[in-house]
């Protein structure tokens, strides 16, 4: 973890401007082609969710601005960003988790399974580790969507990116999955979201 030199940042004015907003987040919804990833998961008998989540984290960690977080009047840069997805319980409630990212899928999957067991055997809403070196994400597998609104707590300097994965549908012989991406505009621009989208699609195709 290191501190960004805001005074030398080419986005200095953007940061100070958008930091004044009560809600500085902007959001987009993008359809991703998950055909290759889905078929790979089915062939290898792997969890499709864990597979596309790992690909997502690989893409997140490839874009530096997605590692920026606001701490007071400073911007810090985390070395690694982890996943904090919601996990559904049998009673249809959910618990938040903290999945440590690892470039190796098998290691990441082990981390996921350990957190899943914890969530399923407790009624806790929040994980034991509740730090901001992560992204918040949810899988809304019940429906396909073209837009999404994240709830905000009202914390003015909230800066964790928030993603939601929707139900995939077949379009032109491809499986397309909507992903809503919400980011703090003080830290992230459309350009950086574009870098993530490109990296995520590449990771999904690389199975």
Question: In words, what does this structure look like?
Answer:
30% of the residues lie in helices and 27% in strands. β5 and β6 (94-96) form a beta hairpin. It has a single domain, classed as Chloramphenicol Acetyltransferase (2-Layer Sandwich), CATH 3.30.559. The strands form 2 sheets. Strands 2, 5, 6, 7, 8, 9 and 10 form a 7-stranded mixed β-sheet that branches. It has 207 residues and is α+β, with helices and mostly antiparallel strands. The mean pLDDT is 96.
Strand content: 25-35%
How many beta-strand elements? 10
Domain module count:
1
H/I helix tally: 5
Fraction of residues in helix: 25-40%
Main sheet overview: 7 strands, mixed
SSE string, helices as H and strands as E: EHEHHEEEEHEEEEH
Low-confidence spans: pLDDT under 50, at least 5 residues? none
At CATH level 2, the architecture is 2-Layer Sandwich
CATH superfamily: Chloramphenicol acetyltransferase-like domain
Backbone shape: globular
Average pLDDT works out at 96
Top CATH class: Alpha Beta
Label the structural class. alpha+beta
Q: Give the distance, in angstroms, between the N- and C-terminal Cα atoms.
A: 31 Å
The CATH topology is what?
A: Chloramphenicol Acetyltransferase
Report the radius of gyration as a whole number of Å: 17 Å
């Amino acid at each position: 973890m290191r501190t960004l030199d805001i005074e030398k940042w080419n986005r200095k004015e953007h940061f100070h401007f958008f930091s004044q907003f009560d809600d500085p987040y902007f959001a987009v919804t993008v359809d991703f082609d998950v055909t290759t990833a889905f078929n790979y998961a089915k062939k290898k008998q792997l969890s499709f969710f864990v597979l596309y989540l790992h690909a997502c984290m690989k893409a997140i960690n490839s874009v530096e601005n997605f590692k920026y977080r606001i701490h007071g009047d400073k911007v810090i840069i985390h070395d690694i960003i982890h996943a904090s997805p919601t996990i559904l319980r049998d009673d249809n409630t959910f618990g938040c988790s903290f999945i440590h990212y690892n470039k190796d899928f098998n290691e990441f999957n082990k981390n996921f399974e350990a957190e899943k067991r914890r969530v399923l055997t407790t009624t806790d809403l929040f994980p034991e580790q509740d730090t901001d070196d992560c992204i918040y994400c949810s899988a809304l597998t019940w429906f396909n969507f073209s837009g999404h609104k994240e709830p905000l707590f009202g914390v003015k300097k909230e800066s964790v990116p928030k993603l939601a994965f929707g139900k995939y549908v077949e379009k032109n012989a491809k499986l397309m999955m909507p992903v809503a991406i919400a980011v703090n505009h003080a830290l992230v621009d459309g350009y950086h979201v574009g870098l993530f989208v490109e990296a995520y699609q590449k990771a999904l195709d690389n199975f």
